[in-house]
Amino acid sequence: MDLQNDFDRMLFFQHACMTSEAAHAVNPSDVDNLTRWAGALLELSQFQGAQESKIMVRDAISKLEEVLVINPKKHDALWCLGNAHTTNAFLTPDSEEANGYFDIAVECFKKAVAEIILLLDFGHANIFRAVKQCLPGPCIRFGTTTAKYKSRKDVGVRMPDDAICQTILEKMDSPLISTRALILSLRVADPSTVVDMTVFPPKILRQGKGPQLHWMVAEDDNEPAESVKSSSPLPLGR
């Protein structure tokens, strides 16, 4: 039974490597894909001989270092790099050389933890509390979906502060959900502000009626964004 599980895992990570390689050919700068590829290589290295394992681990390290050149704060890549150097240390017979890899791994883990703490203290948790406080309002926010709706990738949600909507909701005992509004009437509405919540810090994709709050960045801001989920937002209307 264990042999079958190992074989299935090996096939899974082989397929993951091939998928990542194909995706890399299309977009070489996709840091999420590079990180997944490196992780798959590390897993696959466990099923190889010593020499083949070293080659795979070094390949994984190379990919993770490439990720960190693009985004030095990517905590999952830092953690994965720590795992890679740890694996490399165990594959190194010379104790002094192995200790050097262990030391590098410790530094990678420390950096990863520091970035995670930064996100927890000043990042997503506080941002979603801030979002809750400013709803309803004139903004559409992108968020990742559950597995049940994975075909939709990211979904934009708006909780409007429109007086008519609010009046209707006051008369109801349950939430009211609808698709985007294509209003064919004499009512004129300003475009809403569109905020992408799948990256950190949240990025404004379209500036509209909603203001730019202190925890948002503009789309043309050069500050690197930490991806929460690799995907492309779906286009939305008003």
Mean pLDDT: 76
Q: Fraction of residues in helices?
A: 40-55%
SS-derived structural category: alpha/beta
Q: Which ranges are low-confidence, i.e. pLDDT below 50, for 5 or more consecutive residues?
A: 228-238
Query: How many extended strands?
Result: 7
C-alpha geometry: elongated
| Helical run tally | 7
The arrangement of helices and strands along the chain is HHHHHHEEHEEEEE
Cα separation of the termini = 55 Å
Structure notes:
The chain has 238 residues and is α/β, with parallel strands linked by helices. Helices cover 52% and strands 11% of the residues. The protein has 7 helices and 7 strands. The strands form 2 sheets. The protein has a 5-stranded mixed beta sheet with strand order 2-1-3-5-6, with no helix packed on it. Strands 4-7 form a two-stranded antiparallel ribbon. The longest helix is centred in the middle third of the chain and has 28 residues, at 95-122.
